[in-house]
Amino acid sequence: MIVGGEPELALLLHIFPEGVEELDGAFAVYADEPPVGFDVVAVEDVRVGRVWVGPPWDEPPEDAVAVVIDPGRAFGTGAHATTRLCLELLQELEPTSLLDVGCGSGVLSVAAAKLGFAPVNAVDVDEVALETTRANAAVNAVSVEVGAELRPAALAVMNIALDVVEAMLPRLPVERAVTSGYLERDEPSVEGWQPIERRVRDGWAADLLELRP
Residue 149 sits in which domain range? Predict the structure, then answer.
């Protein structure tokens, strides 16, 4: 999710309208031509269990659940460790209704829909993120309801900052949640919610939480 008030992001989006993404404390920019004065890194595809996430110009493996994400103006190509951790946990859960809070590019919404979760509701405060999620859902030919309403679901997924996770959990009409977007040293602490499972990768963490009866 891109926050328009962040000056670095706002400046980079002005220079590189094709897209900007925050990765491991730095900003990656996407451009039709290699930008002068910037390190050039190729956008790579990602394989997490059964799920492959990659740009439209790459060919997915035949045995994979393919999620095509065009690097754009919203966070989330699948490369970040927190996205991978969320994808790992989603694949271990029984598909059910899902609420993606802070959907960004829609990578988790699209992946969930391809894994059999339904209905999938994607929400974000950033209109660019909502537009990007709609576009990526269409490209992948999956049904994702996109908007601002927090609709009831059996499961939520939130790949956002820890303070936002803790602020949002009491407001969500769900019974379980996959949360990430924070470092391994951090753990969500919200009254009424208990940890069920934790995954870590490259210093980042993701948790499966459950609302106590």
Answer: 44-211
